Protein 1
Amino acid sequence: MEPAGTNLMDCLALIEDPRRPSNGTLHDFREILVIAVCAMLSDADNVEDIALWGRLKEVWLRRFLVLKNGIPSHDTFERVFRVLDPKRFETVFRQWVGGIVTALGGQMAIDGKTLCGSADAGAPPAHMVSAFATNFGLALGQERVAGKSNEITAIPVLLDARYLKGFLVSIDAMGCQKEIAARIVEKGGDYLLAVKGNQPSLLTGIENAFMDRPETSPVHEHVEKSHGRIVVQIGRVLPANGVVDTANWPKCKTIGRVDSFRVVGGKPSELEQRYYISSRAMNAKELAVAVRAHWAIENRLHWMLDVNFGEDGCQVRKDNAPQNLSLLKKIVLNLIRADTTDKPKTSLRQKRKRAAWDDDIRMNMLGLRLL
């Protein structure tokens, strides 16, 4: 599916070259980015693979690119991603995503992921907080957590750069902060926040409400059977009125509890209870569905990036490179998810293989234009 009026290759042309011409640059900046996207779509997961793929596909690439000085080395690719402004890259990414999905809405899950292979000389690995449209399966953006900070500081920055009107924004307990809830509401969205021990008074109040009024809380039970395992999820909701202080948690309408356990080999696991607050009036089924949808960011984004793109194994560590390569992988993931030409549907891994093996498929997915 071609982005509506927003071709990825055209968007890449909007990014300014961060290199200094006085250094005698040999390769066109936009061409470097185009090669990187093409290569990563074609199953290349790191800068060495990108450069190798470029050399092997140079004849094909010259149908679209000038390549005055041939294919850049892997060192050149790494240097460019080290100095590329991640904020500008992110801005262009958002513009492109907005073209893929012209009418965003539904649920936006916010969650963090550590890039394990990016630790460098005693410095901790890069940690990214990502936004994910659960109903479309698309990455909407990311924000890097500052070195000595945590997700609480990165989440507001990520939210400020997003269009939230109509979204239900779900965040785990780290994001259960009054300021974050207020920001979501101010931008026209609704929040669904997990409540744990970092908000002790709020948690105690919700726990007591469900203990005091068990017979009045509507219940929805969901049972999922997969690979010999049964997962049971039971959702309950109550009105937030009288339990949650709306001066601190603006427009809070619903409190929720989700009980879950697994049955493996006929043996049930220990019951796990999670608590939630939301500015949206939700019934028990809507809460249970939203909680399951939130964790889609784990298996449809984070797990995919690790298993299919080798993100945790990536050893690029310097400067902006870990952040920029993580965003590049999200671009390719979105390209694959947005493609509707693959019938019957195949897995993400197979789609990358198809793009690697079939020049026409790759060209169509990228919207490339011949010179």
Note: Confidence is low (pLDDT under 50) at residues 1-5.
Protein 2
Amino acid sequence: DSHVQHIYTNALNSIWMGQFTNCDWDMFQTMHEYGEYHAAARAISGGPVYVSDKVDEHDFELIKMLTDDDGKILRAKDIAMPTVDCLFDDIKDSKNLFKIFNRNNFSGVVGIFAPKFDEENKTVSVRPEDVDGFESGEYALYSFKTGDKRVLSKKESLDVTLKAKKYDIVTFAKINDGIAVIGIIDKMNGGAAIKSVMNTPDGYIVDVSCSGELLFYCEKDIACLYLDGEKTDFENTNGFISTKLAKKETIYIKLK
């Protein structure tokens, strides 16, 4: 049970410490039973990430979920803290799901963590307004664990159900000028890979810092996508556009 308590304590401490320093959420072991659970918290913590595995006992696939192609952390820009509705919910006594939030330049993230105390499935509502400071409007969202994607207003919610010891990370990106760039969805905090989003007379230009599957939402009809000047394939599912990037790229989205 200490693994759940560890994340809870870090998030609560960050309310105070995060106002004047980069919080350190401590090391973890990638090969541990709770390795991915801890990794998810570190991915959106906004702090440094380091592991304490034995030599030659690293889960590199898990580490890659936290970093770009150069090994740099895909780091959220603030310090993660509990969402308002979890602020006074003591994890030692509660059997509710625990939520923490953070922000990237073009998105917000909410991490949801299930306690270990019983094996019943738990459900919690996650909404864009869980990310403190988000304005009114519509947001495109993506669930890291289920792949669910949809559009919600600020106060509308997505129900997330978790088993004991499980987690999810939901990314929210506000729709501005017809587009919302969610990020690289192979990564736990793939929104941190988005470096810029610019409007052009007939589309958008997006700079991305690493390879993987890029996901964005576009209200307008797309004619084609260009990666570093070369036309590329993409999939469109109800306005959610995905394409594969082999490296960090500049994407030109040309509208019809």
Note: The mean pLDDT is 94.
Protein 3
Amino acid sequence: DVQTADWVGAAQKKPLSSGGVDIKSMTAKKLAVLIPVAEEVAMTNAAGLYAQLQRDLPTAFARAFDMAAIHGKTMRGATGPFTDYLAMTTNTVALGTASQGTGGIWKDFVDGMAEVVDDDWDYTGTVADHRLKPLLLQATDTTGRPILVDTTTPGTQMASAGTLIGEPLAYSRSVSGKQRRQSASSDTGLRAVGGDWSQAAYGVGMDITVRISKEATYIDEDGGVHSAFQENLVLLLAEAYYGFVLGDVEAFVKYLAAGGSS
């Protein structure tokens, strides 16, 4: 709680205030991936494959972190490593609730902002799935005119300018859970999360480290044991530590597509 200061007259007793601080611990969790690559591919970098694998590592780590921080899930759908995650909030708005005549999707987002603000939090921004962008750009009033047009930059639409209902807007494919170039992922129906981002904090325990071995063994997902030396493989092991914590999950609101379940 924030302490209370008040006005006091000359030589009068100063007002006394008590305040409390609740502590939430952020624990670092390890994120890792092991990639076996044929030695011939690593040596020749055929079609740039080996270089592409290395460039994809930060993307893989970012996706895993976002899935855990947003949905509380691992990339395989198990319970994630973090105690807090954004989809835990009970504040929910279904996109398409407001009629076109009352403001349509614009009103839906303002209603979500109201849920946050009425609970005494600030609404400081929105992170959205890319599937939301066409919905924003297609939104019109009852005369067919686009309603999401940035008046401060003539001709620039808000979805492209990076603001929505007057606050910053960013996009992440992890919001819906459906990732590009990852067949196992699925769409949860979550289209955006907005709220008071001062209530979200993350930590990086160490930068991504990559170790390479041509002699190590590894166990595949079926339990089979493989020797890199025997099978002419190069093993890439990437690791990093991340933490995430929320001050209060109710400082956020989630926006769902019709039929969404997040």
Note: The radius of gyration is 24 Å.
Protein 4
Amino acid sequence: NYVMVGGFVLAILVALVVVVALLTGKTGATVSYFTRLDNVAGIKYGTKVTYEGFAVGQVESIQPMRIDGKTAFRIELAVSREWQIPKDSIARVAASGILAAVTVDIKGGTSADMLAPGADIAAGPAANIFAVMNDVAGQITDLNQNALKPLLFGLTQQVGTLGTIVERHAPELMNHLITVA
């Protein structure tokens, strides 16, 4: 009986290890590629890497860097060894829906030349609704500060000037209006 129970427990442990390996995506040989992004909101170790939506790997590491006075992030992508990436491909942060997990999606290029393992994949703009909404909010703020406020200030001055002119000349204008009518 002890041998059967021990064998059962050992089989369950092996099954648990296999399931954990499958869930983490670390089931095969991988090669590293790198990309540089300005914003890594929602990206962490283990974040899924997709190629045109097909899961091909995961994020291995994120390293902050200072470039020209700005912070950027160098991301190591562990991609399945047999997956080849065209040289003109673009990596970007994406979410397939409002409640979907953030991924690093590689938009495949059309080049016949493939990137060598360890190469950099060009970065593109984020492709999720929150990034777009953030960009639109920034544009609205800019429009408000640089266009609407000066326009309203100028309009207020013109209306004030017109009010002063009408106030001074209202009796004379009314007399001319009565004369014409």
Note: The chain has a mean pLDDT of 87.
